[in-house]
């Protein structure tokens, strides 16, 4: 039996694309994990449709597809074309779990929730010719003995760095309105046994890797034990983490000592009112500068994330945020236009208020305005986004931030150059 797993593409966005030379960013673990959960008597192929065209004449028995919201139009097209050839299609993931009825118009079966719990049953039913339309996980999976993703099935040549990614935890104790993590992975912060994580990392063939966790310091005691165990491996790594890490000097120290060279932090907004409204009031805008200094002093580079178009934002938000980034010497930043992803509180609220103006999922890549903002026009929001991206990544501004000190300069320059490539693809805006 042949299973083809497809990662679809999105041509509009600035994230998750492959470059002209066919290089991609971080490996997503979803399809390699599904491949690992598939019994070994199956022939499994992972096709990255961002880099290679889909061959609809290929001999396959069943196709599995998952993707981000922005990739769903392509995912549905791939699904429709295979189904027209009589091939069964199974879809899953965060978007599909939030919109199963929509996905069922294109798939023979959908998986709602974490696939680990139902994948065997799906394949057994398929083999018996008894595939059902819906498979619901019903609860969250235990993170003991997790399947080790089949990285051997990936096209290694597509990744310069970022090939080795690993997940140690799932879920988030917080519930920020715009985020899909809690609705999919739950409130409970689940952790893998430390030794299993370390064993997986020891199997990497590079000295560099990335934790794809949403918040690696979500349970500080676990994080400290993990970092202690990483020290002897002498590797370098990065992760997403909450700014709360700056409050714990031991945690910061271990993060750096274990090879944590950079951290991705969701600052989201400099307005405390915005933070409170999105249920992220535990992020203290007032304390940002001090926290950044502490993280820098520990020797860790910061990649900050900001969201624009929140209800308290007016058109000054772009200049204010840019000034803040330059003043604090933030090493790099990424920007997002508020996007109402299905399944989130933001989606329900904007839907109720009649403010969602575009439902073309291809535009849901956080770089296009798909809702009516309150404090500025749609044009002002879109232009401001382009302006701050391009302005943050001029050579002059990259150098100003990167030269804040000799330590970690290699990472700063590399991060900035990759963001500059994205920025240069955006339209130039003369003023805001
Ligand atoms: S944005 Fe971050 S902190 Fe907020 S719910 Fe999502 S993962 Fe948790």
Outline the structure in words.
With 432 residues, the protein is of the alpha/beta class. It has two domains: 2-136, 3-Layer(aba) Sandwich (Rossmann fold); 151-424, pyruvate-formate lyase- activating enzyme, CATH 3.80.30. 34% of the residues lie in helices and 16% in strands. The chain has a six-stranded parallel beta sheet with strand order 2-1-3-4-5-6, with helices on both faces. Strands 7-10-11-12-13-14 form a six-stranded parallel beta sheet. A two-stranded antiparallel ribbon has the order 8-9. Helix 2 links the parallel strand 3 (62-66) and strand 4 (88-92). Helix 8 (220-230) packs parallel to helix 9 and helix 15 runs antiparallel to helix 16. It is globular. It starts with a strand and ends in an 8-residue tail after the last helix. The mean pLDDT is 95. It binds iron/sulfur cluster. Iron/sulfur cluster (SF4) is lined by residues 172, 174-176, 179, 181-182, 214-215, 242, 266, 280.
In a nutshell, what does this entry contain?
By secondary structure, the protein is α/β, with parallel strands linked by helices. 34% of the residues lie in helices and 16% in strands. Bound molecules: iron/sulfur cluster.
Task: Lay out the secondary structure.
Layout lengths: L1 E6 L22 H8 L5 E6 L13 E5 L5 H13 L3 E5 L1 H5 L1 H5 L4 E4 L6 H9 L6 E3 L28 E2 L2 E2 L10 H5 L4 E2 L2 H9 L5 E4 L8 H11 L5 E5 L8 H9 L2 E9 L3 H6 L10 H10 L3 E8 L8 H12 L3 E6 L7 H8 L25 H15 L2 H8 L6 H16 L8
Parallel strand pairs: 1-2, 1-3, 3-4, 4-5, 5-6, 7-10, 10-11, 11-12, 12-13, 13-14
Antiparallel strand pairs: 8-9
Helix pairs in contact: 8-9, 12-14, 15-16
The structure holds iron/sulfur cluster.
The site of iron/sulfur cluster has 12 residues, from helix 6.
């Amino acid at each position: 039996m042949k299973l083809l797993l497809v990662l679809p593409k999105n041509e509009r966005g600035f994230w998750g694309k492959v470059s002209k030379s066919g290089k991609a960013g971080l490996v997503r673990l979803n399809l390699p994990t599904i491949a690992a959960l598939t019994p070994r008597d199956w022939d499994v192929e992972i096709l990255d449709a961002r880099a290679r065209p889909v061959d609809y004449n290929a001999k396959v028995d069943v196709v599995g597809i998952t993707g981000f919201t922005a990739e769903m139009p392509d995912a549905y097209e791939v699904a429709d074309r295979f189904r027209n050839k009589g091939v069964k299609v199974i879809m899953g993931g965060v978007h599909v779990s939030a919109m199963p009825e929509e996905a069922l118009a294109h798939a023979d079966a959908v998986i709602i929730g974490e696939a680990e719990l139902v994948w065997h049953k799906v394949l057994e039913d398929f083999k018996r010719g008894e595939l059902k339309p819906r498979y619901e996980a019903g609860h969250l999976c235990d993170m003991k003995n997790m399947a080790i993703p089949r990285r051997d099935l990936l096209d290694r040549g597509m990744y310069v760095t970022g090939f080795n990614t690993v997940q140690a935890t799932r879920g988030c104790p917080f519930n920020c309105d715009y985020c899909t993590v809690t609705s999919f992975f739950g409130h409970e912060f689940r952790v893998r046994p430390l030794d299993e994580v370390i064993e997986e990392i020891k199997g990497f063939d590079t000295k560099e890797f990335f934790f794809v966790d949403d918040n690696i310091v979500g349970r500080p005691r676990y994080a400290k034990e993990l970092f202690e165990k990483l020290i002897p491996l002498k590797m370098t790594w990065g992760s997403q983490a909450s700014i709360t890490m700056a409050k714990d000097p031991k945690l910061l120290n271990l993060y750096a000592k274990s090879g944590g060279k950079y951290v991705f932090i969701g600052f989201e907004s400099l307005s405390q009112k915005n933070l409170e409204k999105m249920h992220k009031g535990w992020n203290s805008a007032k304390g940002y500068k001090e926290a950044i200094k502490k993280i820098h002093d520990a020797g860790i580079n910061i990649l900050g994330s900001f969201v624009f178009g929140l209800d308290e934002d007016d058109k000054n938000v772009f200049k204010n945020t840019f000034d803040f980034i330059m003043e604090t010497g933030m090493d790099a930043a990424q920007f997002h236009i508020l996007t109402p992803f299905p399944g989130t509180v933001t989606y329900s609220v904007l839907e109720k208020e009649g403010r969602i103006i575009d439902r073309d999922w291809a535009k849901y890549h956080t770089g296009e305005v798909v809702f009516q903002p309150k404090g500025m026009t749609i044009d002002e929001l879109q232009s401001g986004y382009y302006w701050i991206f391009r302005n943050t990544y001029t050579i002059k501004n990259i150098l100003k931030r990167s030269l804040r000190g000799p330590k970690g300069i290699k990472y700063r320059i590399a991060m900035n150059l990759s963001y500059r490539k994205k920025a240069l693809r955006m339209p130039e805006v003369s003023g805001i």
